[in-house]
Amino acid sequence: MQGKSLRFWFDVIDGDDDGVLSQYDVIQCLKDTSYDEKLQTMIWIELCDMCNTPIDSTISFKQFKLHN
After folding, report:
1. What's the pTM?
2. Which residues are CB-neighbours of 51 under 8 A, at least 6 positions away?
3. Cα–Cα separations (whole angstroms), residue 21 to 16, 34
4. What distance in Å separates the CA atoms of residue 37 and residue 2, rounded to the nearest whole number?
5. Per-residue pLDDT reduced to its tens digit, 2-58
6. Count of CB atoms within 10 A of residue 35's CB?
7. Exposed, middle or buried: residue 29 (CB in 10 Å: 0-12, 13-18, 19+)?
């Protein structure tokens, strides 16, 4: 993904518009999908793993972009 596209998707997931992604943001973004709660949590864990971030933390756009 390119910079503008990354920023777009980051902002889509950042539902509370606080500038960071949290587990709550990801779950809220996925709540209207067919993914069950367990899969939503697994997606958050994978995202944290990709960004080298603890699961009880948040992900900044800088981290998101750096590890894409």
Report:
1. 0.86
2. 59, 63, 64, 66, 67
3. 9, 21
4. 30
5. 778 999 999 999 999 999 999 999 999 998 899 999 999 999 999 999 999 999 999
6. 14
7. middle
